[in-house]
Amino acid sequence: xxxxxxxxxxxxxxxxxxxxxxxxxxxxxxxxxxxxxxxxxxxxxxxxxxxxxxxxxxxxxxxxxxxxxxxxxxxxxxxxxxxxxxxxxxxxxxxxxxxxxxxxxxxxxxxxxxxxxxxxxxxxxxxxxxxxxxxxxxxxxxxxxxxxxxxxxxxxxx
Length: 158
Description:
The chain is built from five helices and seven strands. Helix 5 links the parallel strand 6 and strand 7 (152-154). The chain is α/β, with parallel strands linked by helices. Helix 1 (29-45) packs parallel to helix 2 (56-66).
């Protein structure tokens, strides 16, 4: 079955080289600071970042990125938004933010299954993969095993 992909914003951003950013919820304070520094570097370098921006840390990274002008791809773990949040309207309108949902309108809420599907989509559509933190027993740890080792970077150490 073909995957349903719906988008709001500049669809051409999907053609750019993208760096994914994902993180488990549990993370050390030192690693949080490294993630903030990384986000600022991506913003300053104008690098396109793709993420779900769902965890608290990922939302913080999005706030840093939104202060720049570089392209951003936000992938949802549910159906596409009916109303774009206020802080995302200008970046969408200016063509630097693409909001993507790999789900049909029937999927109203995210859960662990849709989050895993979203994360797979993110990793499949990026060439470099950055992880803020990885729970060794979590979904991300299993997904990392599918990636080429030279494409993976850990901000919390390994």
